[in-house]
Amino acid sequence: QKKFFVDALGGSAIKVGTNNLEIVKFPGVLIFFTQRAPTGGTIGTTANHIGFSVPNLRAAVDKVKANGFKMVTATEAVGRDVKDDIAAPAQPGGASIAFALGPDDVKVELVEARQQTAPVQLNHIHFFAQQNTEMQAWYGKIFGAKPRPPAPGAAFVSSDLPGVALNFTPSPTPVVGTQGRAVDHIGFEVQNLEAFTKKLEADGIKLERPYTKVEALGIAIAFIRDPWGTYIELTDGLAKVQ
After folding, report:
1. Per-position DSSP letters for 174-202, written without gaps between them
2. pLDDT band of 180, cuts 50, 70, 90
3. Distance of alpha carbon 31 from alpha carbon 33, whole angstroms
4. 242: confidence class by pLDDT, cuts 50, 70, 90
5. Are 99 and 110 in contact (CB under 8 A)?
6. Which of 51, 159, 217, 223 could disulfide-pair with 123, CB 3.0 to 4.6 Å?
7. 152 — pLDDT class (breaks 50, 70, 90)
8. Regarding beta strands 121-129 and 164-170, do their DSSP bridges make them parallel or antiparallel, or are they unpaired?
9. What's the farthest any 2 CA atoms get from each other in the chain?
10. Residues 81, 86, 89, 93: is their CA dihedral positive or negative?
11. Quick check: 45 and 127 in contact, CB under 8 A?
């Protein structure tokens, strides 16, 4: 995983906390690892893949392949014209994309953003669910994600949170939750998490793990689960990690 996220995708391996926990940092997201065998990859779960944007998609794809990882654009970019592992824009003015498959079948999308100055940064989390519009509404209600106007002919709907888009695709087949899979959970940084968890409970949202302080990292955490099975960590303090 470290070879994939650092060497192939361009993240930075850093150590954090008093226990020197090794994580990988990208602009907009921190990737944490737990050493255990997953029950499956990301495809088939509610969190189908993570998306990063890059200014030069051809170079990014070549780097992934040079590090020995498989491109799966041809099978994952359904309905798009795919040449040499890159899918052409779905609409005029849209972005070219590509899909890579990392260790433990972690699916990652690369989106070309030519005006971007950072070599790589978080772009989106892509959810699959049979009730995708209901899922979009839930993330709007709970986290304040702002829905984008539906794009003509788009295969999915999207909402925005600071620093990340949330995409929701209608899955033609049932999907499972994330816990235990290669991407066990997603996470959101929340200011004043203790008050936020109290509001969640007042709104009938069950805390899978109550508000807890993690002294080694100097943060507080809590866990919830969306109605479709996505395991979600809430943190307060990770924004300070350098």
Report:
1. --B--TTSSS--EEEE-TTHHHHHHHHHH
2. very high
3. 7
4. low
5. yes
6. 51
7. confident
8. parallel
9. 52
10. negative
11. no
Residue 240 tokens read as 């300070």
Please tell me the distance from the alpha carbon of residue 222 to that of residue 242, in angstroms, as a whole number: 22
Residue type (1 letter), 148: R
d(CA 68, CA 80): 25
Q: Is the dihedral of CA 63, 65, 68, 72 positive or negative?
A: positive
The number of beta carbons lying within 10 Å of the beta carbon of residue 232 is 19
Say how far residue 233 (Cα) sits from the centre of its chain.
Answer: 12
Distance in angstroms (rounded) separating the CA atoms of residues 26 and 118: 10
CA distances from 186 to 51, 217, 226 (A): 13, 18, 11
- What Cα–Cα distance (Å) separates residue 156 from each residue in 29, 58, 147, 152, 168? 23, 25, 12, 10, 5
Give the three-state DSSP class for 218.
coil
Count of CB atoms situated within 10 Å of the CB of 180: 15
Contact 51, 108 (CB under 8 A): yes
Report which residue type is found at 31.
I
> And the tokens for 226?
């969306």
Q: Which two tokens stand for residue 209?
A: 């793990």
- DSSP assigned state of 155: S
Instruction: Round to whole Å and give the CA distance between 46 and 227.
Output: 10
DSSP letter string, 2-66: HIIIIIIT--EEEEETTTTEEEEEETTEEE----S--SS-STTBSEEEEEEEES-HHHHHHHHHH
Q: pTM (2 decimals)?
A: 0.96
Q: What is the pLDDT of residue 150?
A: 82
